[in-house]
Design brief:
- It is a single chain.
- This protein is an alpha/beta fold and 133 residues long.
- Helices cover 44% and strands 19% of the residues.
- It has a single domain, classed as Response regulator (Rossmann fold, 3-Layer(aba) Sandwich).
- It is built from 4 helices and 5 strands.
- It has a 5-stranded parallel sheet.
């Protein structure tokens, strides 16, 4: 497995610590934060894993928050959620993947790897296009 760089943005300290430990044990490079604040402004990596913490699920504040993460870090975005409407709303979210809670850590790692590979492939194609122009 590639050593993807992951940022876990989770407000619950216990959940964040558990995710970080599990992802590190799987060989990923992981940092954590409790919000998308200045403390992580310098992070440059492959995938952000974040929870949604608003109800109802697909609200303007959630979409704005996810758009901010995507624009600030230019990384793939995986959203974790336990909200029942997530499957129906997933296509409306600015996320590369939505993972329903509860989830298996191995499945999450697979999703992270897929999102990271897709991001890398998009970056390579973009770079090749810029060289060709």
């Amino acid at each position: 497995m590639d050593r993807w760089s992951v940022l876990v943005v989770e407000n619950d300290d216990d959940i964040r610590a558990t995710l970080i430990e599990g992802l590190r044990d799987a060989g990923l490079s992981v940092e954590g934060a409790d919000a998308a604040g200045a403390a992580i402004d310098g992070w440059r990596g492959d995938v952000i894993v974040t929870d949604t913490f608003a109800s109802p699920y697909c609200t303007e504040p959630v979409v704005a928050y996810l758009n901010e993460l995507r624009s600030r870090f230019a990384a793939g975005l995986v959203v974790l959620t336990g909200h029942n409407g997530a499957a129906a709303d997933a296509a409306q979210l600015p996320a590369d993947a939505v993972v329903m809670k509860p989830f298996d850590l191995g499945d999450l790692i697979g999703v992270i790897a897929t999102v990271a590979r897709d991001k890398r492939d998009r970056d390579v194609r973009s770079h090749e296009r810029s060289l060709a122009s």
